[in-house]
Amino acid sequence: MGDILKIGKYEFTSRLIVGSGKYPDFQTTYDATIASGAEMITVAVRRVNITDPNKENLLDYFKDSDVQFLPNSAGCVTAEEAVTLFRLVKEATGIDIIKLEIIGDTQKTLYPDVIETVKACEILAKEGFTVMAYTNDDPIVAKRLEEAGAAAVMPLAAPIGSGLGIQNRYNVVFVKEAVKVPVIVDAGVGCASDAAIAMELGADGVLTNTAIAQAKNPIKMAEAMKHAVIAGRLSYLAGRIPKKPYATASSPSEGMIQF
C-alpha cells in the first residue's frame, strides 16, 4: 500500500496537512489545498463556518473532493471550552477526527496550555474522538498526551504564524523518540525548505497554514510544500551519510594509474 500515514483509524497517502485561515476567500483556500496534494485541511471552528448550512460554508467547496476536514479548537483557552466545542462539531457534522488546540498565552507567543490540553485529550479520546494534539516541543508532554489517548502529537516548530522554521531540531527528534503515535510538526513553518527539514528529522508529517496562505503566490507555495514534504520523507527513509569534519574523495583511490 506504499508509505501510508496512519492516524488512529484514518489513513492518508499525503503527509502534508494544510490550514484554511488567512486566505482572501474560500475559492483560494480550495485551489491552494488541491495544489498542495494534502488530504486533510484544518479548520478553526470559531472562525470558519462549517456548521451553519444557511451561510457560506467551506464544506461546500470541498464536497466533491477527497479532502478530510480537521476541525480545530483555536480560540479555546480551557479544556471545558474545547470539549464542548468538539461535541457540538461532531453533532453538527459527524466529524470525529480533530485537532485539539488550547492556547495558554493568547497575547504574545500563542503557546499551548499543555495541562489543559492533556485534560481535554483524555476526555475526548474516551468519547471516541481521534485526537491530534497541538503541543510544545517537549518530549515529556508528548508522552503524556499519548498516554491520554492522543492519536498524533503536533509539536510546534516555532510560534504560530512566525515563519521562523524549526528552532530546536533536537526536540523534534526527542519527541519522535518519546512516542509511538505519529508526530506532525505544526506551527512556524515559513517556506518549503522548513517542511523538508522537518521530514528529514523524522517527523511523520507537517502542518502549515500561514506559509501558504500569505505567500505572494499561495498556489505555487502549496505545490512547493507538497514536493518538499515528499523529498524530505524520501531523504529520511534513504538515510543520510554521516557528517565528517574533513573531505572524503568521491572516487576510490584503489587502482589509480600512477604517473
Topology:
Blueprint: E1 5-7, E2 10-12, E3 16-19, H1 26-36, E4 40-44, H2 58-61, E5 68-72, H3 79-93, E6 97-100, H4 114-126, E7 130-135, H5 139-147, E8 152-155, H6 169-178, E9 184-186, H7 192-200, E10 205-208, H8 210-213, H9 218-238
Parallel strand pairs: 3-4, 3-10, 4-5, 6-7, 7-8, 9-10
Antiparallel strand pairs: 1-2
Helix pairs in contact: 1-9, 3-4, 4-5, 5-6, 7-9
Report on the architecture of this protein:
With 259 residues, this protein is an alpha/beta fold. The protein has a single domain, classed as TIM Barrel (Alpha-Beta Barrel), CATH 3.20.20. It is built from nine helices and ten strands. The strands form three sheets. A five-stranded parallel beta sheet has the order 5-4-3-10-9. It has a three-stranded parallel beta sheet with strand order 6-7-8, covered by helices on one side. It has a two-stranded antiparallel ribbon with strand order 1-2. The longest helix has 21 residues.
